[in-house]
Structures are given as C-alpha cells and as structure tokens.
C-alpha cells in the first residue's frame, strides 16, 4: 500500500455518519410483495417489455430489453405474475412518470436455470463479455452506465483497471459492507474484468477509514494469489470516489475534457459492479439484487440490506424498523449528490446504493440565501477547478454563452461549492437549471434547423415539381406542335411535292 | 409515505456571512485595543458612533429598497464597515465627520450599488477617502500616542472635543494634534534630512511609529488568527505585504538615506489593517487563487508609490480603491485551468 498520492484540487471533508450502518451485519431483505421495474433505468431510451400483463415470470427471467448498445436488459428478481405495465412515478431527477413493469410476487422464488461457467480463466473473452451484457450489469456506484459498454474501450491501450471502493459520500457503507462480506467475489470480479480488458494491473481503492475492508481484501489477495492486484487506501476526502478524481489520486492522470478514462489507459469500475460480474460469470446470475444502505436518523434500525432490485422503498424501510419521528426527507443516494424522492412507493433500481432518511434541518432544508460576497470558497472547494461564483453570476442572469465559456458543462454537480458557501446559495441548482436551459435551447435550435431544412426541401420539391410540370407542359406542347406540323405537312405534302 | 423534495446537496450549511463578519470583528480586537490604549477614549467614541450610524443608515437603505431588515442587519457587514472606518479616523475627529463618512460608505458606496455583495468599491475606504479629500486638515491631525504627550484627556475630555469642539482648560488644539510618523518621515525627507536622522525623533519606535507599531502588531495578530481559522485566504495579505516589502526593500537598499526602513512601511500607517482587514474584503477583491496574489501585490506596491511619490503620507485607501477597479480584469486573466482542459 502506497502512502503517496496525487492531489486533486478542492474537495471537502464531511461528517461521515458511516457508523450508523457500518456497524451492523449485512441483513437479507425478504421477498417483497411487489416488484417494480421502470423501463428507464437511466437517461436515454426505454427498454421494450418482453412480458405482458398476466404473464407468469420466474426469478432471473428477462422482462425487458433494448437493442441499443448503451442499454442493459432487466430481469425479474423473484417469481410472480405481471399485474401491470403502466406509467408510474420513478426515481429520476425529472420527477416525471414513466412506464414500469409491476410484478406481484408469489413468494415461491422459482428461478430460471442459471448456467454457471466452470472456469472463467479458460473461457473466451467474447463469451465473458456476452455474459456481462446478458446479466444486465450496470455501474453500481450510482451512474448506472452499462458495464458491457464501458468494457468496450474502442481499441485504446489500457494498462490499469481501477476498482472503486472509495465510498466518499457520507452515510453510505454498501461498498464497505460488500468488501467486508464478500472480498473474494470482488477480487474474482477483478480477475474477470482484467481478462476481459486485457490488463495486467489492477488497483482496488478503498477509503482510509475502511480498515476492515482493506484487511479482508488483503487476506483474500494473499490467500488466492492475486499478484497483480494492489489494495490501496486513499484519503477520506469528498469526492475522492468520483471516477476522474480517483484516477487522478491514484495515477496523476487527467482524463481529457469530453474524454473517458480509457483515453488515459484506465478502466474504472465500482467494486459492486465487479462482484456482480463475478456472479454473472461464475454462477450465470443476472443483476437482480444489490446491497443497499438504509440509514439516517429517520430510520429506526440503520443497516446494510441485500435487497432485490425492484423492491419498493417502503418495504425496505419497514424491514429496517420503520421511520422515526425525524423522517422528513427521503434521499436515494448520499446527501451530496442524492436524489430527494417524493414518495417511498418508488422502487430500488440498479444504481440505488443508499436510502437516506433524515430531518430537514440536518439536510440543509432551512437555508436562507444571502447575496454572494465573492469569497471564493466555492472555487477553492471545486474538484474540477471551476470558478463557481462566476458561473453563478452568469447562470443567474441567464448569460448562458458566458456560463458555457466558464465551462459550465464541466461541473460534476458534486455539491462541494454549495456546502462551503457562506451565503448558502443553492449553486448546484443554478448550474443544473442553466445546463437545462442551454440543452433546451440547443434542442430548439436543432428543431428549428430541422424545420428550416424541411421547409427548404419542401420549397425545392415544389419548385422542382413546378419546373417538371412546366417542362412536361412544354414537352407536350412541343410534341403537339410537332404533331400538328407533321399533320399539316402530310396534308400539304402533295402540294409541296408538286411545287418541288 | 410522502416527502417534500429538494435539490441536492442535502447538507446543513457550515458557514454564514454573519459568522465570517463576526470573526472579522473578533480579529479586530487586539489592534483596536492597542489603538484605544495609545490614542485614548476618542477611539471608543468614534467606534460606537460609527456603528450606530452604520446600523441606522443600513436600516434606512433597506427600508427604502424594500428589503427585509433582519437578515441584513444581523449579517454584521455594516458593523465591520463602520469599525474599519472608525479605526482609520483620528481619535478626536469631530462627530459629524464620523457620521458623514459612515453614512456615505453605507448609503452611497454600498446601497447605491445594490447592497451587500454588489458594491464594486470597499465602502469603508470610500467613506475614508471622501473625508480625506473633504477635510484634509482634520484627517491628518492625530493625537500623539500616550507617552509622548503630557495631555491626558480621558473619556469626558475626548467627548467634549468630539461633540462640542471644546478643548479642556489649558489645552489648545495644537497641543493635541500631531502629524503621523509616516507624515513626519515624508515631510522631513522633503526637507533634506536623512532617514536615520529623522528616526532619532522620539515619535519613532523600533519598527515604526511609537504606539502605531503596537496597533500594527495587534492587527497582524488578528490577521494571523483569521488565517488560522480560514476566515480569509493567505494570498491577499501575503501578496500585499510581500509586494510592499519587496519594493520598499529595493529602494532602501538602493539609497538607505532617503528611503525609510522597510519596517516603517510594514508596521506604519494602515499597512497591517489594510493587508488583513481591508484588502481582504471579498466583495471588492479579486477572487481567483492567482488573482488574489496579484491583487495583493499590486496594492502593496501602489501603497509604496503613493506614500513615496504621491500627495498623501499613506496610500492604503487609494491603493485598495484603485485595485478594486482592476479586480474583475484580474479575475478574468487568472482563471484557473478547469480539470481535463489543456493548459
């Protein structure tokens, strides 16, 4: 384990509140009465349902799929009957409803037959890739990017696999719990991923205050002879667990703007993703469950729970002893980047690492924004080295071009600037709104451009038709005249002849 | 169960404008106490008068602008402005000067531009400069620091002079007024005397002016405390003091007889107050990391230039105001390189 790291700019030290959940053993949630699967698990296209209302489904059965390369199939997490395919509230920042498949479980948990692979070390790489794709695995750190797509590095030279166990958001301990409970699955997953990508070196990064996870990993590493894997403890600073920040801390390499980690020779995967890959390859098990941290002062028994994807949050919170009187805000994810949910009827999705319930005061609900005093604390805290005070100025006054010139779109919305702002200005909210307005404007421009092109095409077509019509008329006329002339000629031919 | 939604981050704020201002006020205590010790109760009267005026002016402006009173009166920014100005004024300034300066600072320099956060110029320094230009004689008559004069006014004596312009029996205006050490140095140098010769005057101490140097040390202590608490960033004071030290040392080494010791510049006049409390006003200063160093250094150099070749013995207020104008440009040209962008 190295003690030397590259620093990224900014970041903040947060109260971690990890002891709430990390000191409890991993609990296994019972089969919920209902499973809910939004067809949109992340931004982009919806998957197509492969089942109809009334169908009986088995655990592990594919219920929705999309042919798009940036999508992952969805599997039923238990057996039961499809009772609805309808529009419902989903855990998505838009707050809009979307189509969900609803399964009423039968409690029998009958499963399709999972096909295990005897020895992945001898399997062909395309076979492994296909397994990962078929298992519906997505990034489990929160972004839910399809893993098979991320493993497709487009021929770039990769020399390092990073497994991200640097769980830097407060409260969340699901990765810590996973590493302590199943270190062998994570390292097995690392070996598979290394084989798929074709790299010789892997770093598993954990935060400095996860000593037990590091110990568990180290023990398995030595026992099972993973020589090419290093276990590294990184400083507990937020957002060290951000993909680009972690790569910078570990390697000093900076992913170019609009680039991906593969551009600097790195593939980064969450440790949970690696464990899911291991299960998919060695047991043939699709991604139908994950560890979720259910925590916060609003929960009676905070703990880590192995929950089926699709489980309504209400059933999970009930399993954790229900709410306390402090339960005032429900957040999916951590306090810094998590999404506040309007209702606990929404389901756990593949990227749900944490269900956090807390009171408003602790979550900054009472902020009284004052004018910006340009103290620059935000710029000091920004991990991507932006100048938030300037971005705020331009975003607020709708000077969108200027905001873009100040690299608005490089903002990762980590919330560090918000956290340190003495004027308590909701900066990230301004930046999100400005981005939204710019994207909407660009969309409108594209639409307008499209409409213009269509209009011009129609104009051209009309003119063309007119021209063709006129030409046809002219041809017809010419033909007629010719015919008339010919007729006249034949009629008067003898005369002509006579004349000649 | 239903929950109210809000945008992330979901964390309680750790800091507030009022907390920052309160810490600035606390940090002013050692320097202010030294001033009080050496220049008497007039400092205290000025301070109370200035704070009262500032709060009244702030309340008036907020009412006229239909803004809520409470959050802005309790942000302590008006109090900081008032105290900075009060501590820059001569101890026996007539009351109407203090009131005029503070009222101008709050009403014109602050609220006319939009209030907290929007003023391009440091309000305290605007108030100071208005007084300096309008009433130059009053503004340059300082009391001799205690130990240099046998006149002891006490609270009532200071009160009578400040509010009624009445001097106690046997004391006339000239007995209590005296040029500042920086002023003395400048005038005497102009008369052809050498620095070491001028320094023999008993108004100079080890570092700078007697009394004055202690106030400077007090402000330095407060400033260091603010740096430790991260109330202010080190770059502006470091740039300011570094710039001033560099240029004063350069000229001192070139010609020690005609350029005072760098310590006079560092511990004389408003240098320390300016470096830690005035130039660091976030609203009017440069905000980028590099920009702050540049901003501070340029102020430090301007201070030297004005003190040496300008028309005034001290140049902190003018330098700060001049660089306030340049702050946006400094910000523009010192933008940091965003992650992932080419250098």
From TrEMBL, chain A:
The protein's GO terms of the molecular function aspect are: 4 iron, 4 sulfur cluster binding; electron transfer activity; metal ion binding
**What residue spans carry the Basic and acidic residues bias annotation?**
450-474
What is this protein's function per UniProt? Part of a membrane-bound complex that couples electron transfer with translocation of ions across the membrane.
Subunit structure as annotated in this protein's UniProt entry:
The complex is composed of six subunits: RnfA, RnfB, RnfC, RnfD, RnfE and RnfG.
Q: Where is this region: Disordered?
A: 450-500
Task: State if Transport is listed as a keyword.
Answer: yes
- Residues of the 4Fe-4S ferredoxin-type domain: 363-392, 402-431
Can you say where in the cell this protein is located?
Cell inner membrane
Q: Which UniProt keywords apply?
A: 4Fe-4S, Cell inner membrane, Cell membrane, Electron transport, Iron, Iron-sulfur, Membrane, Metal-binding, Repeat, Translocase, Transport
Instruction: Please give the cofactor(s) recorded in the UniProt entry for this protein.
Output: [4Fe-4S] cluster
Q: Where does [4Fe-4S] cluster 2 bind?
A: 382, 411, 414, 417
Query: Topologically, how does it sit relative to the membrane?
Result: Peripheral membrane protein
Family to which the UniProt record says this protein belongs: Belongs to the 4Fe4S bacterial-type ferredoxin family. RnfC subfamily.
Q: What is this protein called?
A: Ion-translocating oxidoreductase complex subunit C
- Listed Low complexity bias regions: 480-493
Q: What is its EC number?
A: 7.-.-.-
Q: Which residues bind [4Fe-4S] cluster 1?
A: 372, 375, 378, 421
- What organism is recorded for this protein? Methylogaea oryzae
What does the UniProt cofactor note say?
Answer: Binds 2 [4Fe-4S] clusters per subunit.
Q: Name one GO biological process term.
A: electron transport chain
- Which InterPro entries does this UniProt record tie to the protein? 4Fe4S_Fe-S-bd, 4Fe4S_Fe_S_CS, Ion_transpt_RnfC/RsxC, Nuo51_FMN-bd, RnfC_N, Soluble_ligand-bd
Enzyme class, UniProt record, top EC level = translocase
From TrEMBL, chain B:
Q: How does it sit in the membrane?
A: Multi-pass membrane protein
| Top-level taxon of the source organism | Bacteria
One Gene Ontology cellular component term attached to this UniProt record is: plasma membrane
Q: What class of enzyme is it?
A: translocase
Cofactors per UniProt?
FMN
Which residues in this protein are found as FMN phosphoryl threonine? 180
Task: Return the EC number.
Answer: 7.-.-.-
Membrane-crossing residues? Answer: 32-60, 72-89, 234-254, 266-286, 293-310, 316-334
Q: Which Pfam families match?
A: NQR2_RnfD_RnfE
- Name the GO terms of the biological process aspect: electron transport chain; transmembrane transport
Keywords, comma-separated and alphabetical: Cell inner membrane, Cell membrane, Electron transport, Flavoprotein, FMN, Membrane, Phosphoprotein, Translocase, Transmembrane, Transmembrane helix, Transport
Q: Which InterPro entries match?
A: NqrB/RnfD (IPR004338), RnfD_bac (IPR011303)
Where in the cell does this protein reside?
Answer: Cell inner membrane
Question: What is known about what this protein does?
Answer: Part of a membrane-bound complex that couples electron transfer with translocation of ions across the membrane.
Give the family this protein belongs to, as stated in its UniProt record.
Belongs to the NqrB/RnfD family.
How it assembles, according to the record, is: The complex is composed of six subunits: RnfA, RnfB, RnfC, RnfD, RnfE and RnfG.
User: Which NCBIfam families does its entry note?
Assistant: PRK00816.1, rnfD
Protein name, per record: Ion-translocating oxidoreductase complex subunit D
Species: Methylogaea oryzae
Gene from which the chain derives: rsxD
């Amino acid at each position: 384990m190295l003690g030397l790291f590259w620093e990224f700019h900014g970041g903040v030290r947060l109260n971690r509140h990890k002891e709430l959940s990390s000191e409890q053993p991993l609990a296994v949630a019972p089969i919920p009465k209902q499973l809910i699967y939004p067809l949109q698990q992340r931004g982009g296209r919806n998957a197509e349902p492969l089942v109809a209302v009334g169908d009986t489904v088995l655990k592990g059965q594919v219920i929705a799929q999309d042919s798009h390369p940036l999508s992952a199939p969805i599997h039923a997490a238990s057996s039961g009957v499809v009772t609805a395919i309808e529009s419902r509230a989903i855990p998505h920042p838009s707050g809009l409803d979307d189509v969900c498949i609803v399964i009423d479980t039968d409690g029998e948990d009958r499963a399709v037959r999972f096909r295990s692979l005897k020895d992945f070390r001898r399997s062909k790489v395309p076979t492994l890739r296909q397994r990962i794709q078929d298992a519906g695995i997505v990034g489990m750190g929160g972004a839910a990017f399809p893993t098979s797509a991320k493993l497709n590095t487009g021929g770039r030279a990769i020399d390092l696999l990073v497994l991200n166990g640097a769980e830097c958001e407060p409260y969340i301990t699901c990765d810590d719990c996973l590493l302590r409970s199943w270190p062998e699955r994570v390292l097995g997953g690392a070996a598979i991923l290394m084989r798929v990508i074709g790299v010789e070196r892997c770093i598993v990064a954990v935060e400095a205050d996860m000593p037990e996870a590091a110990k568990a990993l180290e023990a398995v590493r030595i026992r099972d002879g993973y020589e090419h894997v290093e276990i590294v403890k990184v400083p507990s600073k937020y957002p060290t667990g951000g993909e680009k920040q972690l790569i910078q801390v570990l390697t000093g390499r900076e992913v170019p703007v609009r680039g991906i980690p593969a551009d600097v020779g790195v593939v980064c995967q969450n440790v949970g993703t690696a464990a899911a890959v291991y299960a998919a390859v060695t047991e043939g098990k699709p991604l139908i469950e994950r560890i979720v941290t259910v925590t916060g002062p609003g929960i009676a028994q905070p703990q880590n729970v192995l929950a089926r994807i699709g489980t309504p949050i209400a059933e999970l919170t009930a399993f954790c002893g229900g709410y306390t009187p402090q339960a005032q805000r429900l957040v999916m994810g951590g306090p810094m980047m998590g999404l506040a949910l309007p209702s606990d009827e929404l389901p756990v999705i593949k990227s749900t690492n944490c269900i956090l319930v807390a009171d408003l005061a602790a979550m900054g609900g009472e902020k009284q924004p004052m004018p910006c005093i340009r103290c620059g604390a935000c710029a000091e805290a920004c991990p991507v080295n932006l100048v938030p005070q300037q971005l705020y100025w331009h975003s607020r006054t709708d000077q969108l071009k200027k905001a873009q010139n100040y690299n608005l779109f490089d903002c990762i919305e980590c919330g560090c600037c918000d956290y340190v702002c003495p004027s308590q200005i909701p900066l990230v909210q301004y930046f999100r709104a400005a981005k939204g307005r710019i994207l909407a404007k660009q969309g409108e421009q594209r639409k307008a451009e499209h409409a213009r092109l269509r209009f011009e095409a129609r104009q051209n077509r009309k003119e063309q038709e007119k021209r063709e019509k006129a030409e046809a008329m002219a041809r017809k006329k010419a033909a007629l005249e010719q015919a008339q002339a010919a007729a006249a000629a034949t009629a008067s031919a003898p005369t002509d002849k006579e004349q000649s | 169960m239903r929950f109210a939604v809000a945008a992330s981050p979901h964390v309680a704020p750790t800091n507030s404008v009022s907390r920052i201002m309160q810490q600035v006020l606390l940090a002013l205590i050692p320097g202010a106490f030294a001033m009080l010790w050496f220049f008497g109760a007039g400092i205290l009267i000025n301070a109370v008068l200035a704070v009262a005026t500032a709060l009244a002016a702030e309340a008036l402006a907020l009412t006229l602008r239909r803004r809520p009173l409470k959050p802005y009166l309790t942000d302590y920014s008006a109090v900081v402005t008032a105290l900075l100005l009060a501590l820059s004024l001569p101890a026996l300034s007539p009351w109407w000067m203090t009131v005029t300066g503070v009222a101008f600072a709050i009403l014109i320099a602050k609220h006319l531009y939009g209030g907290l956060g929007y003023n391009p110029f440091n309000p305290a320094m605007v108030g100071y400069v208005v007084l300096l230009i309008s009433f130059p004689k009053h503004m340059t008559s300082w009391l001799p620091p205690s130990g240099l004069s046998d006149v002891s006014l006490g609270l009532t004596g200071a009160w009578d002079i400040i509010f009624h312009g009445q001097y106690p029996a046997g004391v006339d205006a000239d007995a209590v007024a005296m040029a500042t050490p920086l002023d003395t140095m400048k005038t005497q140098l102009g008369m052809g005397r050498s620095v070491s010769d001028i320094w023999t005057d008993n108004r100079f101490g080890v570092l700078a002016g007697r009394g004055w140097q202690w106030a400077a040390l007090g402000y330095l202590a407060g400033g260091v405390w603010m740096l430790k608490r991260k109330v202010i960033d080190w770059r502006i004071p470091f740039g300011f003091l570094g710039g001033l030290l560099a240029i004063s040392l350069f000229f001192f080494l070139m010609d020690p007889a005609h350029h005072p010791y760098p310590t006079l510049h560092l511990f004389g006049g408003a240098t320390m107050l300016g470096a830690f409390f005035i130039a660091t006003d976030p609203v009017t200063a440069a905000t980028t990391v590099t920009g702050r160093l540049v901003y501070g250094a340029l102020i430090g150099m301007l201070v030297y230039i004005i003190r040496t070749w300008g028309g005034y013995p001290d140049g902190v207020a003018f330098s700060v105001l001049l660089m306030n104008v340049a702050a946006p440009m400094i910000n523009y040209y010192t933008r940091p390189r965003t992650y992932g962008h080419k250098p």
